Each structure stands twice: as structure tokens, then as C-alpha cells.
Write the C-alpha cells for this entry.
Amino acid sequence: MSTVVYSPYLAGIPTSQLPFFPPKPVKSKSCRLIAWDVSSVNISSNNCGKRVRLQFSSRVTMCSSNPSSIPSAGYRQPKVVWIWTECKQVMTAAVERGWNTFIFPPDRRELANEWSSIALIHPLFIEEEKLFDSEGRRVATFYEVSSPQQLELLQPVDKQPDNVIINLVDWQVIPAENIVAAFQGSQITVFAISKTPSEAQVFLEALEQGLGGIVLKVEDSTAVLELKDYFDRRNEDNNILSLTKATITQVHISRMGDRVCVDLCSLMRPGEGLLVGSFARGLFLVHSECLESNYIASRPFRVNAGPVHAYVAIPGGRTCYLSELNTGKEVIVVNQNGNQRTAIVGRVKIETRPLILVEAKEAENGTLYSALLQNAETVALICPSQGSEFPKKAIPVTSLKVGDEILLKIQGGARHIGIEIQEFIVEK
């Protein structure tokens, strides 16, 4: 399966300016990777001139999408971030997070020289609505869009030598979508000037693929931290979760309890669901209601996840209780191969229903894991991939029997506000 990796390091620097970073091709099944390595760089960590040594490595990734991959994950292209600021704290925060291309007005070359003396940065300079590097080569052209007529004039031109930076002064979402559509398939990178991380997110997600880059124009380092956090969460979708095969040891019909249905703003496919469990140390992969049946319509946006006390996996390697989910919160959707993506909760429905207790053991350490689920034919646990032409995706809890194999996500059991910690804990 193809994946796309976001890498901000040295983004936007023409390779012709990096003779001292020999490119090293990395072979991949469906991607061509080119990496540059910088051994060590001195940068200023505070205004007193104290220097620290940082390690940087850059990776530019070009990948093809796979139609069989999880929706959205295969379509994301590498994004570029440039910073427009005169604040030293913003510069330091950006460089420490791998963003080292900075934009300066023509009268701030002294500031560019000062920063270049304390950090490895790539300065770009504005001159007459164009952007030039330190050697006078044009790398981008500015365009201001404040009307539909100006937007229509913004079209890719054959053999256009530079990138495009747009400033959307009125509407943002619809113009950004129109630009993504107009420039799809073009080799030109289109940047949007963003004054907040939320604006940047709008541009990076327009028409799902998003614009190619962001010029973050801020004077507050908090904006850099928030944007980096957004990319970290976005890139979690490219990580493959390690799922463990476990064997059912007990299935016991219980009494009534308050169970939670989680309705997402995304559709799920066969083999996808949420990670849920009574103990954080082992989460069961509970299937969505996307499968057809004779008695009830398919609801591919829903997971009948379990009682209110149960843990559910959310982005950042964290967990929360099912009772804490509400509209707008994020969870991770996982398939039987461990591929994951982030989804938004649209609605949570809590109702009293009969429950069933499911217990399973993992063969390697023999630890017992359990989950309580609604006792209904539409609730199922996802099976390990069997490699056959028509592999079984899930087993309804009403059909589970001792010896059946299901999938678990095994992790540390001790948690504090959903964050895994190291401490002694007994759960039973």
C-alpha cells in the first residue's frame, strides 16, 4: 500500500543550492525517496547567544495513491511550509521543527543575515510582488485574489518557471477549492498566505488534496507549535498500527448496561472499526455497521462500540472513555491490516441494551483481555487477515465461540487523562 509522508525539513530549497547534501535514493515499492542529511547545525536557543547542536535530516517523498487504500490517506501529497516573520522566537520555533525557509521584505536583509549566522535557514526576499533567493533567482510570484475575476485569471501556465503564492483577502474555502482544481496535475506548487493555523488547515484540506504549501505569516511562536501539532496528527494516518492475534477464551451473556453508538462524519469500509476495550492494555477492534443484512439497513458511519466505561483509541496514542466522546471529537479508524485514519465524531448515542462479555488471550504472554459489547447480530469483532480470495472480515458477537481468533491492540495499561504512563497498576 502506498503512503505519503509529510516532511517539512529544508522544504522549498532548490536542490541546486544543496551541493553539500548529496542526495541518497531510497528504494521503495511504490515511492521514490530522496534524502539529504545534515550532520549538525548550531542555532541560538535564546537571546543570550547560547548555542545548541541540532540534528536535521530531510526527506522529500513522492508517492502514488492506491485505490484500495483507506479513503483520504492515499491522496495526500507532501506539503511545504514557509515562514514570514520578523520575530526571533518564531524563527527559533520553526527551525527546531524543521521549517527553515523564511520570507523577508527587501529592507530586512540585515535581519536575514543575522538569522543566517545563528541557524541554517534559507532566506527568500520580496521584490516587486516576486520572491527571490539569496542569489537573485526567482522562486515564486505573489497574486492577490479579492474577486472572482482575479481568481479566473489565476491558471497554470506551461513552462511557468516559479511557484505561486496567493493572498485570499475575502473568501477562502471556495477560492482555495477552485485553485486546487485548476492546478491539479501541474508541477507548480501553490502556496496560500495564512495568518493562523486554522486558516492553514482550510487551505491544506481544500478538495481533500489541499494546496501544495503554506506561507505562515505570524509574529507569535504559538502558531508554529499549533501548525506542527496539526501535521503530527495528520501524519499519524501514515503509521501502521501493530495488531495482535488473540484467541477467544470466554463468551458470557451479561445483563443490561448503557452502551454507546459512535456515529462518524466518515464512511467506513468492511474490515474497519474502532479500538475499544475494558482495559487500556488491550483494545478490541470492533467492526462498523457497514455490512449488509436482511433485517436492518447498513450504517457504514456507525460503530456500536460498547458500554460507557470502555476505553476507545483517539489520535496521539491516547485513549478516552466512550462516555467522553461528543460531537467534534476525533477518533482513529483502523482496519485489519493496521492502517489507520482520523475521523470526526458526528453524534454519540447512549441507550440501555443487553450486554455480552468477551474475553481473549494473546498466545505469547497469556494475558487476559476483555470487552463488554451489546449482545446483537450487528456488533462484530474484526478477524485477522487470512489471505484468501474472500477473507472473513468479522465475527458477530452472537456467533463468537471459544477458539475464534480476533485482533487486539496491545499497549501499556497505566493511563493518566488518556496518556500512557509508567506506573504499577492492576486492572481486573
Notes: Residues 1-75 have pLDDT under 50 and may be disordered. Residues 221-235 form the longest helix (15 residues). The first strand starts at residue 24 and ends at 27.
